[in-house]
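Q: Could you fold this chain for me?
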Amino acid sequence: MHAIRYGLLCLLEQESDHGYRLWQRFEGGVGQVWELNVGQVYQTLPTLERRGYVKSTPHVVDEDAPRGPSPKPKRDFAITDKGSRALEGWGRRTASAIEPVRDRMLVLLLMLAEARPELALKHVDAKERTYRQYLVRLRKRQRKVMKTESDPMVPLLCLDFAVQRAKSYLVWLDRCRILLERRDYDAVLRDDDEG
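A: Sure. Below is the predicted structure, expressed as structure tokens.
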């Protein structure tokens, strides 16, 4: 996935590192809203190296540091000039792009809206409950970050994105309910005109 690839390049532009530490840094930043499996990091780094975006060197071990069993020697990764240019280009493309709508709930509602509107409404209700509970959890995480992080900017940006997205999803679910229950098509347009 492109976001993982360029997220790692961004971290490497800040500081060279080995795979596990890159994963920890990713989790410490955007992990609030994007869970990354450490295996994804280890799969992505060789791809970045083959493309010439990063170079790797054997990890230098501090002789005084405690050692555990390590099946593979660690490698440190650093971004190359080509990787920096690719990161810059991705940033420009991302800033001017509109993300495509790919939502499983939308597909479900599209499939059920005409044939089984009562079932579609049940799914809307269930999804709304799920999102309301999710919003409560996000708010708790925001408060925890404020209390525990010395510099909460990045985690708060991530959490605020998730909160605003959840709120807009709840608005959309409410509009789905109006359309499915009352087939009040004008209500959707009136809401758009008011906003």
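A (continued): The first strand starts at residue 17 and ends at 18.
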